[in-house]
Amino acid sequence: MRSSTRTFPRRPSPPGLVADAVRTGNGCVSVQVVNEFCNVMVRKSGKTLPEILEATRLFGRFRMVDGSLALAQRALEIRDSCGTQFYDSLMLAAAESAGCGEILTEDLNDGQMYGTIKAVNPFKRL
Fold first, then answer.
1. What share of residues in the chain are helix, strand, coil (percent, to 5)?
2. Domain housing 59
3. Among residues 56, 61, 54, which one has the least CA distance to residue 23?
4. Is residue 21 part of a domain?
5. Predicted confidence (pLDDT) per residue in 61-115, tens digit
6. Burial 13-48 (b: 16+ CB within 10 A, else e)
7. Residue 96 falls within a domain, yes or no?
8. Is 90 exposed, middle or buried (0-12, 13-18, 19+ CB in 10 A)?
9. Is 89 within the bounds of a domain?
10. Does a structural domain hold residue 12?
11. How would residue 11 be classed by pLDDT, with cut points 50, 70 and 90?
12. How many domains does the chain have?
């Protein structure tokens, strides 16, 4: 018997995934993600307001999924059926409403299907 080492392709790096989404126009982002980004930048980054505003410009290159009552209600249904936290469910509902098949997140189980949405941890290497 011979042993062999099987290699698996690595996932693209998170910056590569973002660049690809910008290039192809296939990316979308929930307004919740933008709000959380802004909150972290203001509270923890030590950046100036102009620097934070510049950092948020990238989000303008994506299709934006706005919040709504219907989205919050769908998030409640996802929370009930999948057992996810409400804010994770809200992001899943936003991805679903945008017609996405995958969501990039480190907060959900990598590879797991949540209804029609597959969670992909962009920081996990295969």
1. 50, 10, 35
2. 28-120
3. 61
4. no
5. 899 999 999 999 999 999 999 999 999 999 999 999 999 999 999 999 999 999 9
6. eeeebbeebeeeeebbbbebbbeebeeebeeeeeee
7. yes
8. buried
9. yes
10. no
11. low
12. 1
